[in-house]
């Protein structure tokens, strides 16, 4: 798809989240822009921690988005490219407001200096962020049966996989989203992680989180019969997450292996094959 033919939101997703951009191409044409708008909104709130110098400024930014969402549902969306696209998606597909507020609230946890206390806390964060985003995308694609359960399982799997992939980058920024209880159990210290010199225990922590990601992926797929082809695009990120998890397991769950950052030339082919078969 040539860049000249892409909307602002589509370009933002293509540049900043190319894997999700690929999955959007498998959505019905009349729903594609809604997905681009949702993913662009997600990028706006997800990057909050990375672009502010202190938590208070992050809270101000998230408050701006809370107010922007309220104005969309009040019929007076503010002049902002993503807000305008989001307003169109909300109106065209009757998207509920609550998930937007829930996603913004969950992103507030990014501003906390401490890692999640335990695995359950991390799962709650994953559900609140990517699970909620998946729920919105499914709604934009017409909704499905058992939507809440599918969105929670799929979003959690994708979020956990993404957090593991981003761990080296986050560690450089002194931000770790691994369960504190697991790090303590396996003797992983924050200082060593921040210095990019973790011990062997980190691989065991990563293995535990990856195991949970695979379990949630399997749960989502067990509900596949409830997902019509028109809604597949919202769940195709699972196909790519599975590939990343397999590569991670193959290398012993070493997230600092630079080969993990290489793009797979077969990603588009895998998505096409799964979509053709009505699977994710």
TrEMBL record:
<dbReference type="InterPro" id="IPR002060">
    <property type="entry name" value="Squ/phyt_synthse"/>
</dbReference>
<dbReference type="Pfam" id="PF00494">
    <property type="entry name" value="SQS_PSY"/>
</dbReference>
<dbReference type="GO" id="GO:0016765">
    <property type="term" value="F:transferase activity, transferring alkyl or aryl (other than methyl) groups"/>
</dbReference>
<dbReference type="InterPro" id="IPR008949">
    <property type="entry name" value="Isoprenoid_synthase_dom_sf"/>
</dbReference>
<protein>
    <submittedName>
        <fullName>Putative phytoene synthase (Terpenoid synthase)</fullName>
    </submittedName>
</protein>
């Amino acid at each position: 798809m040539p860049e000249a033919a892409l909307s602002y939101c589509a370009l933002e997703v293509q540049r900043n989240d190319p894997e999700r951009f690929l999955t959007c191409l498998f959505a019905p044409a009349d729903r594609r822009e809604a997905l681009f708008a949702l993913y662009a909104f997600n990028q706006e709130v997800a990057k909050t921690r990375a672009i502010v110098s202190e938590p208070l400024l992050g809270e101000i930014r998230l408050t701006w988005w809370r107010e922007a969402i309220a104005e969309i549902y009040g019929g007076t969306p503010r002049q902002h490219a993503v807000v305008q696209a989001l307003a169109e998606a909300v109106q065209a597909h009757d998207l509920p407001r609550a998930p937007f507020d829930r996603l913004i609230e969950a992103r507030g946890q990014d501003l906390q200096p401490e890692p999640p206390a335990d695995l359950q806390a991390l799962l709650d964060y994953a559900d609140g962020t990517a699970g909620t985003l998946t729920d919105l995308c499914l709604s934009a694609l017409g909704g499905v049966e058992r939507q809440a359960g599918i969105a929670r399982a799929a979003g959690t799997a994708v979020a956990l996989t993404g957090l593991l992939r981003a761990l080296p980058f986050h560690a450089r920024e002194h931000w770790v989203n691994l369960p504190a209880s697991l790090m303590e159990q396996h003797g992983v210290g924050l200082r060593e992680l921040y210095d990019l010199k973790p011990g062997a225990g980190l691989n065991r922590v990563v293995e535990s989180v990856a195991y949970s990601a695979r379990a949630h992926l399997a749960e989502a797929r067990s509900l596949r019969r409830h997902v019509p082809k028109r809604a597949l695009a919202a769940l195709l990120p699972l196909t790519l997450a599975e590939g990343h998890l397999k590569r991670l397991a193959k290398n012993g769950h070493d997230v600092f292996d630079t080969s993990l950052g290489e793009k797979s030339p077969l990603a588009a082919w895998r998505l096409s094959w799964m979509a053709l078969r009505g699977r994710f």
